[in-house]
Amino acid sequence: MSKMIRKGDRVLVISGNDKGRAGEVLMKVKDRVLVQGINVRKKHLRRTQETPGGRIVEMEVPIHISNVCLCDKDNRPLRLHVKQDESGERQYVYRDGSKEVVYRPVKKPA
Questions:
Q1: Adjacent-strand bridge partners of 89
Q2: In terms of C-beta distances under 8 Å and separation of at least 24 residues, what long-range contacts does 35-38 make, across chains too?
Q3: pTM for the full model?
Q4: Residue whose C-alpha is closest to residue 82's, from 106, 108, 100, 107
Q5: Which of the chain's ends, N or C, has fewer CB atoms near its CB within 10 Å?
Q6: Domains and CATH numbers, the chain
Q7: What is the C-alpha to C-alpha distance for residues 67 and 77, in angstroms, rounded to an integer?
Q8: DSSP state, residue 65
Q9: Alpha carbon of 15 to those of 8, 31, 39, 91, 103: distances in Å?
Q10: Using one digit for the tens of pLDDT, what is the confidence trace for 39-96?
């Protein structure tokens, strides 16, 4: 599943404090993803000449990739499968009722 998730995908949090919330993947590093508006933490910055009183900044913190799953626009989780089309190109597809919908092509290994 971790190979399927990439930057720009919409994901649904399936465990943790933000369970049930969805957002867009901003960045993926190894086994963690940074999701917009998910896992927001407060960081206290010390005093500097620019900010004499210091300040508190809210920032998103990466979440483990096992705690998210791909979802559609209606925040329903997706189960992707790899299929080949007529031209031989591999692509991810998911079932929507009785029809198969193409999610995106599989990235070819370099």
A1: none
A2: 35/11, 35/60, 35/63, 35/68, 36/60, 38/13, 38/63
A3: 0.81
A4: 106
A5: C
A6: 1-74 (2.30.30.30), 79-110 (no CATH)
A7: 12
A8: G
A9: 21, 16, 11, 28, 24
A10: 999 999 999 999 999 999 999 999 999 999 999 889 999 999 999 988 888 999 999 8
Structure tokens at 8: 């720009």
DSSP states along 16-73: STTTT-EEEEEEEETTEEEETTSSEEEEEEPP-SSSTT-EEEEEE--EEGGGEEEB-T
Nearest residue to 23 (alpha-carbon basis) of 53, 61, 52, 56: 61
> Which residue is listed with tokens 């190109």?
89
* Residue found by looking up tokens 């193409």 in the block: 102
- Residue corresponding to tokens 């991810």: 92
